[in-house]
Amino acid sequence: MGIFLVPVPTKGNRQRLTVEDRLWACRQHGRPLEKYVEEFAELSYKECEIFSNARKTSVRSAKISSPVESVEDNSMASVTDVLTELKSLRSEFSSKLDGINNQLGELTNSISVNENNLGEIKRDVTANEKRIEEAEARIAATEDALDKSERDLAKETRRLAYLEEKTEDLENRGRRKNIWLFGLKEGAEGKRPLLDFITDMLPQWLGIESDRVFILERAHRTLASAIPNQNRAVLLCFLNYQDKEFVLRSTRQRDITHDGSKLAFVQDFSAETIRRRREFNTVKKLFVDMGTFRGFHLQPCKLRVLHNGKIQMFSSPQEAEEFHRKTTAK
């Protein structure tokens, strides 16, 4: 080995010198080995726990006063132990590092798998975002169409209600010259046609001159089959509207009977109008008892009541009942 100078260990460079370098330097400069061992023990305490043997040796060497040769031998033994410990530590570190490398490899594989999974998740999220955007667009279009459909439906509903009112009004207008006759016994006309019998009997029933002629377009009973002990209604269709109105006004002023049976003359209305008027039957009786009932408004169907010299009209039974409750409470 070539000759080279090794500096004496100091605080600035002691960590960069090997054990052999430190021993050689002590011999060259004549420095006591006991001092070196103490410094080496202090350094080993700071660097690693494996140098505990060196600290123990240095303590023992400080307590024992022996020749330099025994101290040197003890120091060399301590250095040998340190080197042995370093070698075992190196092998232990190598095995642990191998284990760490294996774990790092597994971790790397797991990260790669996770990255692949994240890539698939990102693609799925992107695809889902596109589908959601398409769904939102379709939902928005559907909502717009639904709003338009609701507006159209409301418009058509109002139009349908208007057309129903119009149709009902036209039907009632077509029936305006018709009268229902109730109470006439079956077979009262005998062998004569029912039309001729009614035409001849009307002046007598109304108590007017027999020379007054009422022209009827037709007169027939309901189309239902005859039932024993029950009298079917008779429908009278007048040619002139004025004749029909005259008959109705006259029948309201007197009671009419035939063969002991009371006759009733009623205006013909559509089925819907009759249904609406029946809804007012209960409250109508209240106003009839008070003497304020004034019939019905034809179209739309409304109840007419005289109150304080004015005609009040009600579209629903509830409205009429509330008005009756307020007026009677006063």
Question: What labels describe this entry?
Answer:
330 residues, alpha+beta, Alpha-Beta Plaits, Rec A Protein, domain 2, 3 domains, five-stranded antiparallel sheet, three-stranded antiparallel sheet, 9 helices, 8 strands, 62% helix, disordered N terminus, L1_C
Quote the beta fraction. 5-15%
What overall form do the CA principal axes indicate? Answer: rod-shaped
Q: Which segments are poorly predicted (pLDDT under 50) over 5 or more consecutive residues?
A: 1-16, 43-52, 61-68
Determine the number of helices (DSSP H or I, runs of at least 4 residues).
9
Order of helices and strands: HHHHEHEEHEEHHEEEH
Helix content bin? 55-70%
Mean pLDDT: 80
Strand order of the largest sheet: 2-3-1-5-4
The CATH H-level superfamily of the largest domain is L1 transposable element, RRM domain
The figure for the number of domains is 3
**CATH architecture assignment name of the largest domain:** 2-Layer Sandwich
Largest sheet: 5 strands, antiparallel
From the alpha carbons, calculate the radius of gyration and give it in angstroms.
Answer: 62 Å
The secondary-structure class comes to alpha+beta
Protein name: LINE-1 type transposase domain-containing protein 1
Coiled coil: 118-173
Organism: Anabarilius grahami (Kanglang fish)
Keywords: Coiled coil
Describe this structure in words.
The chain has 330 residues and is an alpha+beta fold. It folds into three domains: 14-95, no CATH class; 176-268, Alpha-Beta Plaits (2-Layer Sandwich); 270-330, Rec A Protein, domain 2. It has nine helices and eight strands. The strands form two sheets. Strands 2-3-1-5-4 form a five-stranded antiparallel beta sheet, covered by helices on one side. Strands 6-7-8 form a three-stranded antiparallel beta sheet. Strand 4 (256-258) and strand 5 form a beta hairpin. Helix 2 (33-47) runs antiparallel to helix 3. It is rod-shaped and about 170 Å long. Mean pLDDT is 80; it is low at 1-16, 43-52 and 61-68.
